[in-house]
UniProtKB/TrEMBL annotation, chain A:
<feature type="transmembrane region" description="Helical">
    <location>
        <begin position="23"/>
        <end position="50"/>
    </location>
</feature>
<dbReference type="InterPro" id="IPR011866">
    <property type="entry name" value="CysW_permease"/>
</dbReference>
<dbReference type="GO" id="GO:0005886">
    <property type="term" value="C:plasma membrane"/>
</dbReference>
<dbReference type="InterPro" id="IPR035906">
    <property type="entry name" value="MetI-like_sf"/>
</dbReference>
<keyword id="KW-0812">Transmembrane</keyword>
<dbReference type="GO" id="GO:0015419">
    <property type="term" value="F:ABC-type sulfate transporter activity"/>
</dbReference>
<dbReference type="InterPro" id="IPR000515">
    <property type="entry name" value="MetI-like"/>
</dbReference>
TrEMBL record, chain B:
<keyword id="KW-1278">Translocase</keyword>
<keyword id="KW-1003">Cell membrane</keyword>
<dbReference type="GO" id="GO:0016887">
    <property type="term" value="F:ATP hydrolysis activity"/>
</dbReference>
<dbReference type="InterPro" id="IPR024765">
    <property type="entry name" value="TOBE-like"/>
</dbReference>
<keyword id="KW-0067">ATP-binding</keyword>
<dbReference type="InterPro" id="IPR027417">
    <property type="entry name" value="P-loop_NTPase"/>
</dbReference>
<feature type="domain" description="ABC transporter">
    <location>
        <begin position="3"/>
        <end position="237"/>
    </location>
</feature>
From TrEMBL, chain C:
<dbReference type="GO" id="GO:0015419">
    <property type="term" value="F:ABC-type sulfate transporter activity"/>
</dbReference>
<feature type="transmembrane region" description="Helical">
    <location>
        <begin position="133"/>
        <end position="155"/>
    </location>
</feature>
<dbReference type="InterPro" id="IPR000515">
    <property type="entry name" value="MetI-like"/>
</dbReference>
<comment type="function">
    <text>Part of the ABC transporter complex CysAWTP (TC 3.A.1.6.1) involved in sulfate/thiosulfate import. Probably responsible for the translocation of the substrate across the membrane.</text>
</comment>
<feature type="transmembrane region" description="Helical">
    <location>
        <begin position="66"/>
        <end position="88"/>
    </location>
</feature>
<comment type="subunit">
    <text>The complex is composed of two ATP-binding proteins (CysA), two transmembrane proteins (CysT and CysW) and a solute-binding protein (CysP).</text>
</comment>
<keyword id="KW-1133">Transmembrane helix</keyword>
Amino acid sequence: MAGHIPLSYVGKSSGKKSAEEPLAIRVLLISVALSFLFLFLLLPLLAIFIKAFEQGMGLYIASITDPDALSAIKLTLLVVVLTVPLNALFGIAAAWAITKFDFKGKSILITIIDLPFAISPVIAGLVFVLLFSSHGLFGDFLFEHDIKILFAVPGIVLATLFVTFPFVARELIPLMQSQGSAEEEASLTLGANGWKTFWLVTLPNIKWGLLYGVILCNARAVGEFGAVSVVSGHIRGLTNTMPLHIEILYNEYQFSAAFAVASLMSILAIVTLILKNIVEWKAGEHG
Amino acid sequence: MSIQIKDVSKAFGSFQALQDINLDIETGELVALLGPSGSGKTSLLRIIAGLEASDNGVILFGDEEMTHIRTTERKVGFVFQHYALFKHMTVADNVAYGLKVRSKKERPSKKEIKEKVKELLSLVKLDAFADRYPSQLSGGQRQRVALARALAVEPKVLLLDEPFGALDAKVRKELRRWLRRLHDDFHITSIFVTHDQEEALDVADRIVVMNEGKIEQIGSPEEVYEHPNSPFVYDFLGNVNVFHGRLEDGTWRNGADSLHQQALAYVRPHDVAIERQKSAEDAVQAEIVHIHVVGRTVHVELKQGDTDRFLEAELTKDRYRELDLKPGETVFVRPNQLKVFIPEDYSI
Amino acid sequence: MAKKKWKKHSILPGFGLSLGFTTLYVSLLVLLPLAMIFVNTASMSWADFWATVTEPRVVASYKLSFGAAFAAACINVVFGVLIAWVLVRYSFPGKRVIDGLVDLPFALPTAVAGIALTTLYAETGWVGQFLSFKVAFTPIGITIALTFIGLPFVVRMVQPVLQNFDQETKEASAILGASRLQTFVKVIVPEILPAALTGFALAFARALGEYGSVVFIAGNMPMKTEITPLLIMTKLEQYDYEGATAIAAVMLVISFVLLLFINGLQWWTNRKFAHS
């Protein structure tokens, strides 16, 4: 189950454009579609920015430079820096194993990789509570060794890893499947060893797909709320990520401050969309 | 470098791709592996290259056993059916790849690599395309890049998998002549896989005809064409007419009956003689269905009077004029040269 | 070379390393944690388990979650197909930007979407003030949030199918005398049906588990506007780990079934793709 459409499907417009419907129908369909998109996508986005600046620039700056906000931003960045590379590495390894070899249990593995997409983020958080809380499987062990995972940064990282781990793999598997192994075989017959083949042939061929997966993985890692909410413990200044910080501000009726931080995340979302489209375009160009 | 293949077998699941293959290839030979799809020819080529492992059997290059040597160390040049050029590298980088990936000790200097690439590109007549990407080349040009890339590492053995399969007829013909000349200049032991009999007959020193995982016949193009040793080879190499007949005291007679051993006679169209008068006992009455004139030869399609089977004869234009044949006329046909097979051994 | 029966020979290197790493990673990060749900549930007696997962408040949450997710997925199919149609077949100014914007729900953090939608649909909000009925803090609000987060699924599934769709097939149908409506129903609908269904199932599965965008707009009143993921969260906050785990086990099983269903649908879609 993909959370998005693999890059290999994107950007292959047939170029055929014929609108044989009468103008009236066309205008009607376009207006209905655009109204829906305006109401559901554009209006919420606009609302975030307008609400963020409602109380003036001063409050906006103050909201995003508040020590708690800054620590939330730092924590979010830390989580991203830890989870995205790990999941990218996993995605490459999984795609390599799945697309280059035939082995029993392959389709089960693919289904397992899809699992986190199908599971509620709340459950994703809950499973780590069951593992690491004081009543959990490793509870006594962690207590004895004075290791804190739950309601601390490691728990947040683990929950985020869980939720975001299919993105890169889901992107690379169809891509590498469609590319086949002929170029790798050619490289081996020319005397290159496995690592050289990977670096010089495979990686350049999958770079756009990899980047695409990383962008999506990154967006989700930054914005994950449910799973992180379960394991974080909401300790201000310590275990609050940006989305959690927004929740607290909102629930305390500090709407402008909440929307100020939300606007930062929205800018990031827009940048993500732009990057995503650039990568789609680049990948389409290079076939 | 000579190649010896001893008792090589390979199965994919329950499918027996190769069965006890034995084949010796001499140094400098250009050998075609010819057969229909699924005959195991590509599997054999990939096993020789080390891209596939055989279930049992031995591969020798010269005196050296290669069976467990990895592809990377076999020093074979392999040209893939769909070229498998590195999409993200220029033509020059593609050709240089095999030299650049060598370990520091064995790697030639940058200047040497550059010169080697230049030399190879001029050999394949692509000097002007060094900085292009594979996507900017035609099929024939890509195939030449693939060949230059394979030759760059100075392989002892050159293996080509359906090298001209994806090209159109005219380019294919040009390229295979060119490959033949290239081989005559360099004398690298070469094996190429093809399903096109004309290509095999045209290019190869020797042809290995394969069917259902086994070698049917090995021989020079003339041998396999003129003296096929099985109905399969007969059928696969060129058009053939089948006469249903019987064995009487060791000689073949047209027309099957229940008293004698059944036997089929295989006759090439140019060995079918057409006559106005019945000159021999075994001549068969036939009706002319169609006449095509193709260049200097005339193809005559006939319906055998006694069996309703169709057969094809090939005449020279002179003979055709002499006989003055017209569609719908009744004539007599007689095999000039035939090869007899007993039907129990096979099915056609 | 040692031959392993379960793996076909390949000359490409790195099988052990890549599969080993993959398996270890998946086991530690996904399988072991998920197994905890079932291990912990198994320690409950069946009677306890059944009582927990059929408690009226829990049943009400299932009804709400399923109902709202289903409604949202239905809205998404209708508008998703329409948007895909318009984006593929017509040209109008700003089309590329709008096409890119469709993915916004994937890129925007759910909490951000949640507070934005709540602000819009509150009684005094930009949209809410014009409506004669309450949206925020009702099941309608929940449906709106779930529609938002599920929107890209149907559009992105149907778009490539429409793009690949053979113009000739459609023209042939028109030449054969079919009216526009007949062409649509007989030719286009069967073609996009697998993709639209897959999109529906993806949107539904996502909506069923969604938390971030819903909690703000839902109001979270027990029996009325409390979705199942939120109920799990509430139980956790009350340190009722058993209750939370039991409900999670029910949801997990539903997710598995949906996942299998979706895999089947995608297989069907791909087969259709392969034909064209």
